[in-house]
Fold this protein.
Amino acid sequence: MPGPTADLFTDEALQQPAGREQIGEQSYVLRGYALPWVERLLPELRAVLAQSPFRQMVTPGGFTMSAALSSCGALGWTTDRTSYRYTTIDPTRQQPWPQLPATLRELAVMAAAHAGFDGFKPDACLINRYVPGAKMSLHQDKNERCYTAPVVSVSLGLPAMFLFGGHERSDKTQKVSLFHGDVVVWGGVDRLRFHGVMPINEGLHAVMGPQRINLTFRTAG
Ligand code: SIN
Ligand code: FE2
């Protein structure tokens, strides 16, 4: 006969791999998934940023994005007054984007698999830096050549309120708090869902200082 503790072990949450929170049919937040990787990935990230530093980009609409951007991998996402697009060349330096470092790639591939997307082959890693007050308006990731691969998003530093919407800009959004080391993966039927980030609150993170850095891995080409 089931005792009072039996429910604890039949809870749906326990049937999920550890720390996996489902936020859509094929979308998950992997709580703290990147934490064991941080020490190894920060030197890689520093080396990438020494080559291709953060810069503030302008959108085709003429707005300067509040998040500063850089990229690594074969393709880097950029925007200017003419379009949003992926390029093989960092337009600031007129050189190829830095290569996608091994630890970053491994983390992205393993996180994707943990969320049900085996065989992820990222060729683009967008690096967003948010200082307090910076945000990312609701948008879809749709500059990639095909949408069969998921988006893998790694959060570092100050917390953020992530907005996860539907397939229409006007659809209701879920608010999901993201902390240092959390990874969000969305793909499949959810691949083109609108998402964004509310303005980051003031704060000082013990490892990352007064900023949030987000890495988004995609197969772009
Ligand atoms: C993005 O959608 O490019 C960034 C998402 C985030 O910063 O969490
Ligand atoms: Fe995005």
Q: What stands out?
A: The chain has three helices and 15 strands. The first strand starts at residue 20 and ends at 24.
